[in-house]
């Protein structure tokens, strides 16, 4: 067995990869990573202690792009110009000059760039939780007489909680599919779970914990063969892996925009509804802007046609503007190139984890086959809660997921091979400090 790479050798290799990176030039379009002097907030989910605070040092390795993407430099100009020229100058007239149409206009842009969705099927608005609720409730109502909602046991908490809430509200049963924390929902597991009682299946394309990449096309077909509908969560996949919603005949999909779509903290989510289902599905939150004639202000609710039927309240105009330049950038770079770099980054992560971290008791808790892996790698170790908290203070920023997972989140348009190597070296040092 060859000797493990030294740090110097790994950095030399990383620098060569960065020089050859066809996406490398895009990194200069983003705000340089750093932590402002005022930032002293504890790492979310890492520790309750105020001692686990970020320093004001520059970020050495940002390995959490799968939780919050870095902003584009143009975002500051876009938002400032909106405040000054659009909101500030046009005031309420802006609603008649394009604001009202932004949820579907930007939705179509996103559909074309990253979702494989033809126009008229994607809309921006609400949070992921609210859109999941709308989607699952609409799907359940469209399958009367069916009594089960199928969801896997290690799906993201929001998905599981929304499903449990709807089941309690509608008198339905949750059919839990027991999945491994290191894998996810497979065709074999789903086929055993669905049947004539299944109303809807709720699943994630990329598992939030392990990074397992589900076979959306096959799982959707299994769901349809059982006569049920499927709602896909794309939070950890949109913008980082291929998504072909139309081709795969997906019914409904929901996802956030602050991870690989770089819309900023709390940016509004998106919903996709296949065109053939839009007249059949009736979402439960009847707001005035989902009405066919919202400004008639009339009695009774008459749903708008098409994807706008999934709208409820006032469009989050400021919240959706930041993602627009990133959507265009993804469209320019192309998802195939983004995916290729994602695979290269995650493969290097696993290689160095095996060489540097496995001897220290670290376990790779993500699939080793790239075809089964999204754009993050989870590493398990009993000390990782405290290690992540300490790393944040030194400018190395992965994240922690209980019970003992450190996620190395790799955003292909912003993450360099050099910072990945430095980050993994810092993890090794934190576990085994030099004497």
Automatic annotation (TrEMBL):
Catalytic activity reported: 3-hydroxy-L-kynurenine + H2O = 3-hydroxyanthranilate + L-alanine + H(+); L-kynurenine + H2O = anthranilate + L-alanine + H(+)
Pfam family, one: KYNU_C
Species assigned in the record: Subtercola boreus
InterPro entries tied to this protein: Kynureninase, PyrdxlP-dep_Trfase, PyrdxlP-dep_Trfase_major, PyrdxlP-dep_Trfase_small
Name by which UniProt lists this protein: Kynureninase
GO molecular function ontology, one term from the record: pyridoxal phosphate binding
Entry EC number(s): 3.7.1.3
EC class of the enzyme, as a word: hydrolase
Keyword tRNA-binding: no
